[in-house]
Structure formats: C-alpha cells, structure tokens
Amino acid sequence: MLRGLAGPKTGGKVLVAFASQTGAAEQIAWKSANALIARGDFVRVAQLGALTPAELAQAGTLLVVTSTYGIGESPDSARGFERKVMPMRANLKGVSFAVLALGDRSYEDFCGFGQRLDKWLATNKARRLFTPVLVDGDEDLPAMKQWCENLAKLGARTTVEALMPAPPQDWFLEERRLLNPGSPGGEAWSVSLTPPDPALLNWRAGDIAEFWPRNADSAVDAFLSERAQDGASRHVWQDREMTLRDILAHSRLPAPHEAPGMEAERLILQLQAYPHREYSIASLPGSGRLDVLVRKVVLPGGKLGIGSGWLTHHAELGGRVPLRLRPNPNFHPSSDGPVILIGAGTGMAGLRAHLLHRQKKGLREAWLLFGERARAHDLFYGEDIAAWQADGTLARADFAFSRDAAPKTYVQHLVAEQGGAIREWIGRGATILVCGGLNMAAGVDEALSAILGREKLEAMTGTGLYRRDIY
C-alpha cells in the first residue's frame, strides 16, 4: 500500500527496469510500463544491468521487476550490476521507487536479490513508494493483485489478469520414448505433444514449456474411496468451478492422518496446488510438435516425482496435458555467427533446439560440449548429432562421460581443458550458450571465468554473447 505517500505526477518520468533470467520479469516489466503509458507518462524500459547510478538518479519514478534464481542469486544480466554498482554509494535522493521481486519460496533466500536491491535503493536515499512485493511463482495471484493495486495508485490502467501469464491450454500427448535404457543414471524420456490448433506452434529456440502435472488417476481414486468423497461434486477452487476429482488431481493429496473425516469444502481449503514444471523446448514449430526431455525422478520408496512421473508414466497417450509456452528472450539465438553450446544431462534439450535452428538456416561453425554418465546409453539425440556433423552444422563436438573415465570427468572439466580453443572461438565473435542444472552451470561459469576473465564474461553477458538457461 502507498500509505498516504503522494505518487508521481501525471506526465512525469518513469523508468521501469528489469532483471530477468527466463523472461517472466521482462514480460511483467513491459506490461507494467504499458499500463503507465496510458496515463500520459514518459516511460522508459531498460535492463537493470545496463543502467548506471547516474541514470537511476534521473529516473523520477523507478519501478524494478526482478527475478531471483538459485539460492538468492541475481539474474545473469544483473550480476555485473550487483558486483560493481551495488557496493558503491549513489545519490538517489529525489527518486521514488518500488520493487516487484519474483522467486520461489521453496528455495533458500526467497527473492533474495530483489530484497537486496530494495535495501540498496533505500540506503542510497531513494524514497520507497511501498514495501517490495514478493511473488512466489507465476501463479501467486495475491501478490500480483498487490502490485496491480499499487500501480493503480500511481495512475496505471490495468488489471491483474492483464499482468499475469495467459492460462495453460490442453495439448495432446503424442509420444514418449525412453532415450537411455540401461543407463547408470535416471531414465530420460523424450516426450512429444501436439496442439489442438496449429496456430499454437509458435515459439523460438530457447523458449520454455510450462506443464501442470496431475496425480495418477489411481491415487485420486484411492483417496476418494478412503475418504468416501464424491469425485463428481463441483466446487470453486482458485476462482474456477471444478469437480472434486480434478481439484484433487492438481493438489498434494493429504496423508491418511491429515484432516480425517473432513467435509469436501473444508478439505479443499487445506489443499496445496502443485506448481507448474518448466522444461526447455527441444524442437522447432516446423516439426508440428513440441518435444521436451524429461528426467524421471524416483523418490525414496519408489514413488515417482509429480512432474516427471506425470509426463513419463501416468499421463495417457493421446490424452490432454495442460501446458503454456513461455518466451525466454535471454536464451534466444543472438546472431548467426559462431556458437559454443555447453550442457549436461537434460540440458541437451535446449541445445538441440538451437542446433535445429542453425541447421534450418544453413549455419555452420557450431561447437558442442556435452556431459553425461555413459556414452553407450546417454548420448541423447545421438542420431541428430551425427546428422549435424555430417551436414556441417556441427563443426566440432566434444563429450565428457563421467562413468567412462577415472577420475570422473564432467563437462566443466572439458571446458577447462579446451581453454585455448575457446579463446580462439571467442576472438572470432562466438556466442556461448549454456543449458542445464545449476551445479553444472556454476562449474562451467567458473571454468570460463578462468579462461576469459570475469570482466570479459560480464561484458559478453551484457552484449548477449554469453547466455544461460539453467535450472
């Protein structure tokens, strides 16, 4: 709430800055800016990492939309800003500001970077319009309503529905294939889906598919039977009328000792909805289907992970699967020049889309560095890799299979070993694309920093020559 503080005058200057890892913060920043333009402001939208303290001091009103990834870390595009600018003192007196921080409460240091940024701005004499709004995932409607209400107090014309992502749509599960039978690691499945409308085949290499997982039908049936509940009864849940069966399908099912004998309406109030799961898209729209690469998670006791279990095991072939496409501009192709693609495990999905993009355009000079467990089992999309090597799309491919070597070698070790060649490719203007898990990405980042220097890596991030899709 603004708590009686006067907002900026109509027609004033507004700077909307964003720091985005997977595109969500950038989208909200632009939507917020468009809502303020409607009231006659001069609104500028800029990437936070590209701004200087002097530019911030001239902002008038500063609205920052930022994500946090990992354990409280800043997005890649803001790493240099946090390392260089935030330790400095800046005179921001006369600037009114507010922060919208996106994060995931299941991680430590929830919205850590957004909260550090809010504190830095206030410490440097900028006037806080309202306390930072902390958003837990894409579906945090109460937090987004709070942001929308505060924008309205600044004169914006918008609705929370306009600021939130579009709802998911049902696609059809076309095919799933186990890619690594006999692997010493977890099963990896290629999952393919087709849309109800071909117009939905609309994304770019680097974009993300968000899935809404369900409990297995057998688990829901058992729960209804144990609780003597009518699965066909209808109730309002998350502002929609649904059957109890569908509500339970999308929620964490209470254990037998939790809420025993509770009536359906009271039970629904206790349910925790599953958050969506994100996967890098491994195909291009021209194939007519959307492919993702899913690692099946097996929990202690043999139970499958909710998201991976749904896509690789429980969902019915030919059945409907809710999903939403998310643009991920931070991982889009940045040029037609040389590219070094680095990844491990299911990160090969995002790299495959980039290689398909380059193959389609007839581009060459791509170098793949990929790591997994065993070459005999885990060379995902091996036939594609051979075809890219044959037609010249891939000029070079190097692999690290940890179970095939002693001591174990991972892709970050491979990067370190190829330092001279990497410097030569960067000298020719190559882009570096990294896709995969946080630990792998951190190791690769450390190796690249040793090869190129931290300053160089941050400069490449600012110019789009170092891009990461990490999870």
From the structure above, extract its key features.
single chain; 471 residues; alpha/beta; Rossmann fold; Elongation Factor Tu (Ef-tu), domain 3; six-stranded parallel beta sheet; six-stranded antiparallel beta sheet; 17 helices; 33% helix; globular; disordered N terminus
Q: What does it look like?
A:
- The structure is a single chain.
- This protein is α/β, with parallel strands linked by helices and 471 residues long.
- The protein has helices at 24-37, 53-57, 79-85, 112-123, 141-153, 160-163, 217-227, 244-249, 264-270, 306-314, 348-361, 375-378, 382-391, 411-417, 419-427, 438-452, 454-462; strands at residues 13-19, 42-47, 61-67, 96-103, 127-128, 133-136, 169-178, 188-194, 208-211, 234-237, 240-243, 277-280, 290-295, 320-326, 339-344, 366-372, 394-401, 431-436, 466-470.
- It has three domains: 13-163, 3-Layer(aba) Sandwich (Rossmann fold); 169-326, Elongation Factor Tu (Ef-tu), domain 3, CATH 2.40.30.10; 331-470, Nucleotide-binding domain of ferredoxin-NADP reductase (FNR) module (Rossmann fold, 3-Layer(aba) Sandwich).
- The protein has 17 helices and 19 strands.
- Strands 1, 2, 3, 4, 5 and 6 form a six-stranded parallel sheet that branches. The protein has a six-stranded antiparallel sheet with strand order 12-9-14-7-8-13.
- Helix 14 (411-417) runs parallel beside helix 16 (438-452), helix 15 (419-427) packs across helix 16 and helix 16 (438-452) packs across helix 17 (454-462).
